[in-house]
């Protein structure tokens, strides 16, 4: 009987540990992934008095255009010629390496919210296809999206 209790106790510990590992690896507490952010010094003057959420969204967009290029925006900015979330922040990168910024996202909560959701999911280590699906599911109720091609894979 004593041996049976020991086996039961050990089995319970193994099961509990397995659930703890599964919860940890599938939660917001999984190993955080570092995301790159541009320094404040690279931001345009029109953001000088902006809220930190807006400034951080621009800082993220500058350093992560390769990600934002695959994320649609749902604020209605497609009529402005935007094709992805990057366009809400950056008009173009100049040959000098500097950016011509778009002021649109500085006054658009949907653009900033989308970018913050992308940042959060990137920090969680989610793949781009999963990030895109989550953005589509969350923001499609706000309006038509930009014509952003889907992520392959």
Structural overview:
With 153 residues, the chain is mainly alpha-helical. 44% of the residues lie in helices and 5% in strands. A two-stranded antiparallel ribbon has the order 1-2.
What characteristics describe this protein?
single chain, 153 residues, mainly alpha, two-stranded antiparallel sheet, 5 helices, 5% strand, globular
> Roughly what is the average pLDDT, rounded to an integer?
85
Structural class comes to: mainly alpha
- What gap, in angstroms, lies between the N and C termini? 53 Å
Largest sheet: 2 strands, antiparallel
Instruction: Please provide the count of β strands.
Output: 2
How helical, in percent, are the residues?
40-55%
Using the alpha-carbon principal axes, give the shape: globular
Percentage of β-strand residues = under 5%
Task: Point out poorly predicted stretches.
Answer: 7-29
Spatial arrangement of strands, main beta sheet: 1-2
Total individual domains: 2
**Number of continuous helical runs:** 5
* Gyration radius, rounded: 21 Å
What is the element string, with H for helices and E for strands?
HHHEEHH
Layout of secondary structure:
Layout: H1 2-25, H2 52-63, H3 65-68, E1 90-93, E2 99-101, H4 109-123, H5 128-139
Antiparallel strand pairs: 1-2
Helix pairs in contact: 2-4, 4-5
Task: Give a brief outline of the structure.
The protein folds into 2 domains: 1-30; 40-142, no CATH class. 44% of the residues lie in helices and 5% in strands.
């Amino acid at each position: 009987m004593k041996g049976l209790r020991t086996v039961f106790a050990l089995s319970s510990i193994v099961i509990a540990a397995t659930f703890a590992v599964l919860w940890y690896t599938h939660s917001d507490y999984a190993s955080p992934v570092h995301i790159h952010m541009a320094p404040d010094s690279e931001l345009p003057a029109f953001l000088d008095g902006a809220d930190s959420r807006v400034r951080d969204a621009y800082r993220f967009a500058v350093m992560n255009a390769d990600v934002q290029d695959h994320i649609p925006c749902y604020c209605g900015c497609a009529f402005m010629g935007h094709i992805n979330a990057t366009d809400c922040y950056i008009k173009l990168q100049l040959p000098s390496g500097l950016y011509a910024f778009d002021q649109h996202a500085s006054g658009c909560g949907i653009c900033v919210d989308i970018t913050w959701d992308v940042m959060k999911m990137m920090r969680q280590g989610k793949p781009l296809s999963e990030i895109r699906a989550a953005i589509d599911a969350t923001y499609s109720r706000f309006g038509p999206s930009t014509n952003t091609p889907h992520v392959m894979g």
